[in-house]
Model the fold of this input.
Amino acid sequence: MSKQPEKKEFKVTHEGSLGVLALGAVGLKLWRQAVEENKKAKKSKADNGKGKK
Done:
């Protein structure tokens, strides 16, 4: 019986890393998703701050 390799969790951030590049197309897709989520979070934060002092 062959051993299954241990699965490790990898956090993908909008900044990216060589680890993401090593994951290939899957890593690129996850990185793009992280970038979009970061943009939405920044836009939401900016929209919430408008008009408040």
